Amino acid sequence: MDMSQYKDLFVSEAMEHLNGMGDAVVSLEKNPGDTETIHTLFRMAHSLKGMGASMEYHDIADLAHAMEDLMHKVRDGRWSFDSGAADLLLEGTDCLIAMVKDVEAGGTGSGDIADLKRRLAAYAPGPKPETRGGVVPAEGEHPPAGHGREKGEDAVRDATDRTLLPEQAESRQTVRVRTGVLDTLINLTGELITNKNRMSNIARELGSPLLDASLAELSRLLRGLHDEVLKVRLTPFATIAERLPRTVRDLAKSSGKEVIFTITGKEIELDRGILEELSDPLLHILRNAVDHGLETRE
Length: 298
Prior knowledge:
This protein has 298 residues and is mostly helical. The chain is built from eleven helices and two strands; from the N terminus they run ααααααααβααβα. The protein folds into three domains: 4-173, Four Helix Bundle (Hemerythrin (Met), subunit A) (Up-down Bundle), CATH 1.20.120.160; 179-232; 235-292, no CATH class. The chain has helices at residues 7-30, 35-54, 58-75, 83-104, 114-122, 153-163, 179-206, 209-232, 238-241, 244-255, 272-292, and strands at residues 234-236, 269-271. The chain is elongated.
């Protein structure tokens, strides 16, 4: 079966998982006892494994499986989550991102993952604190890579649906739309409003009450359409904020500084064009803040 028709869907949803995994790893490193984040991180790795296997990107599936195995040991209470596990998972996330980008560019998604898989399999943290209770795995969530999977779009979407937390269920009712389509829709709406204004000028010259009433109703509908179209372009700040904790963590670790980084207002929505322009300046500000604005403990 030709799976290439599902490539764009795979890339889009895989990158969504991987961005979320980076944020989850950093969050879990700060709060290793957060069972919800433990489950979320496990499910993301599990979904990536299934998606990669369904699409026959074997290296992606194998590496995600190795990361899933590590998280399985944390989830069932055998291991505690420490900075060593976080380092390995973040390295795995970076490797998976590179392989997914290779798929996007028309490649096979292959990578040199043997050493990383070995280190993931061999890793063992220090003794698990007795005060932290184990996390019992949900039934049936640890099958072998690709086992019992049907192929195609249903498999990719099914893997994604299982990753959703209850409060994220609403996202199942959304669809992905290319930005070019949104831009065209906004331009067409603007042209409709312009033409409505021309018709209003003609109606005034004709002096037709019926035409005036019809144009007034058309004007009301166009205002509503324009408002709704603009809302479609709104994107939560979280879409660019999710990479910031990982950046700060890496900077703090490389500079030997201790940093507590908190983000508020991730739910605030802005036009996606504005968010895209904000991303790089925010990263630059954070790098300067850690490098030059903070001192070491000493």
